[in-house]
Amino acid sequence: MKSSGCAFILADSKSCRSCLCSIFPAASLLCVVLFVGTAYLAPDYKGKLLKWQIADSFENPKLEECKNQCRPSGSESLPEGIVSKTSNLKMQPLWDIRKIRRSKDKKVYQTMDSKANSSTNLFAMAVGIKQKDLVNKMVKKFLASDFVLMLFHYDGVVNEWKGFGWNDHVIHVSAINQTKWWFAKRFLHPDIVAEYSYIFLWDEDLGVDNFHPGRYVSIVKHEGLEISQPALDVHKSEVHHQITARGRRTPVHRRTYKPSGNGKGCDASSTAPPCTGWIEMMAPVFSRTAWRCVWYMIQNDLIYAWGLDMQLGYCAQGDRTKNVGVVDAEYIVHYGRPTLGGLDKTEASSQSHAKDHRLDVRRQSYRELDVFKKRWKKAMDEDKCWIDPYP
């Protein structure tokens, strides 16, 4: 049995070698044929493949369209139609309330109706409870003109405003000892306020007896002002800069005239702030497009925004001598009341008086001005693609 088995294995091995020997020549011949054929067929195949790709791009243009589609970062895994690129500050009811709700003063306040939902302008203001009388007048006037209102509480006091009938109809944001620029950088992102044509970002120490928000908006639209402010009543206001003083000859002025023998005056040939293309930062009004630019300019860590006023013209969407101006027809009073800082009685001791932090605020403001100037210069020097329109 062993002998015959070995013989069978040997016989089988011989047959395998014989079979392999017959396969190798055939396989080699087939490879040669394929190699030679490919040399002739490859150009033709490439041409057909190119035609198929071109045809496919015509038959399915969506492929090219998708390549060029801009999507917000992080939304690439979502269908485009579900992405909300912007938002707003409208408060929504918890359930469907179709009846108009009115407060005690029916002529002024209304919510959850068609008029309130049609607001196209935003009024935001940094407030403290000590200035509640002035704030109350401003809030009433802007609500009556169908503005969305947002109050930034820098003193942390929110509940004490509940006594005002409009309290539930405005948005409240509270953070201790922060400026309106700190609030604006964090809560007025351009994509959040994109629905509002104009953004008013005001201080609280202003009088509005001679100011009408609706008429003001009509004037800046007509005049093409992207950045503006109401003029100041020179008889009642604390006026820091001549350009903000109210004139009576025209509805709007865009420059001031200030003779000076040292070359620092302002005349008809002046092209730079503060002679022209400039407003003060107490009561600025920005168009939607201008605000998108200004928001980026506001620094995260510089809360007083000193120096920002001199650069606002870069956000004027064109010629700053034409698109930046002061509205004389609708004017306000600047009372100049100190808000941030002030006397701190908690730090008083038997050896000293209460500390006045207004001095600290002023010092910090100057420090931030210096930092902003240096950052601006550094950014100009490093950005080789940027061209200064105001060299």
UniProtKB/TrEMBL annotation:
**The entry's keywords:** Membrane, Transmembrane, Transmembrane helix
TM stretches of this protein: 20-42
User: Where in this protein does the record put region Disordered?
Assistant: 250-271
InterPro entries, per database record: DUF707 (IPR007877)
What top-level branch of life does the organism fall under? Eukaryota
Looking up PANTHER family in the UniProt record yields: LYSINE KETOGLUTARATE REDUCTASE TRANS-SPLICING-LIKE PROTEIN (PTHR31210:SF74), OS06G0731900 PROTEIN (PTHR31210)
What is the protein's name according to its record? Lysine ketoglutarate reductase trans-splicing-like protein, putative (DUF707)
Query: What is the organism field in this record?
Result: Quillaja saponaria (Soap bark tree)
